[in-house]
Write a structure and sequence with these properties.
Layout: E1 3-8, H1 15-18, E2 23-26, E3 29-32, E4 35-38, H2 45-54, E5 60-62, H3 66-73, E6 79-84, H4 92-107, E7 111-116, H5 122-136, H6 141-153, E8 157-160, H7 165-169, E9 186-193, E10 196-204, H8 206-220, E11 228-233, H9 237-248, E12 255-260, H10 263-269, E13 274-277
Parallel strand pairs: 1-2, 1-6, 6-7, 11-12
Antiparallel strand pairs: 3-4, 3-5, 8-9, 8-13, 9-10, 11-13
Helix pairs in contact: 3-4, 5-6, 8-9
GO molecular function: lipid binding
Keywords: Lipid-binding
Protein name: DegV family protein
Length: 278
Amino acid sequence: MNYKIIVDSCCDLTEEWKADSHFQIIPLTLQVGNRFITDDENFNQAEYLELVRTTPSCPKTACPSPEAFKKAYDCDAEAVFVVTLSQHLSGTYNSAVLGRSLYLEEKGDKQIAVFSSDSASVGEAKIAFKIRELAEAGKGFEEIVKEVSDFRDHMNTYFVLETLDYLKKNGRLTGLQALFATALNIKPVMGADKGVIIKKDQARGIDKALAKMAKWIAAEAKEAGNKTLAIAHTNCPERAQKVKEQILSLIRVKDVYMVNTAGVSTTYAGDGGIIIAL
């Protein structure tokens, strides 16, 4: 089957996967003050973090247009699979769905599946990798849709950040109980429930919070020996390596990959953030 996998730019792929011709990344737009930055291959994390640090207003993101997705669907692939940020965190999923409707109205029938990842960052990436694995194994379109939906529903996402300010100010923590003041140096261990951000635990100081996150991952892992541990970090490779070692001291996994965050994940995770999917 000739296939294509479309992801938004919150999907933190490795450089190897970015170069794979089966993948296409649709960028979101980042806004810091009066500056607008396309989250594409030209994104410079160091410059961006400095811009965020020196700009009083909170950074924001804007989802791609339905037209951007419609254009991406117009390709030679007989089957197109789309993975987006959780629909509870971004309008990207709705743009992808509307883009599919527009394409089908104009061009006619085509196999296009749009998945809300119920996650972000490496959670999106793991779903995209699963699609490629199944497609390369010769699975049919409907079978891939079914298996990927099940894979997503059994995947867990976790994160610990230096600050939750960017998520809070952009309305991504709606419904959560009040968190401790940052003056107390309380760092929540966060997770996701069907794509909605939840608080799982907390600790004083980020090192203790990361250790607690490792224990949560180990406790909730099922059949970890058959899974890939995916770790994204924002400008903190040493911290990511330490978390990796903590997790692997508790469970055995099939594989591990680590990646530095691109623009959208950098915007919300902030400098020093760690995001994990298993």
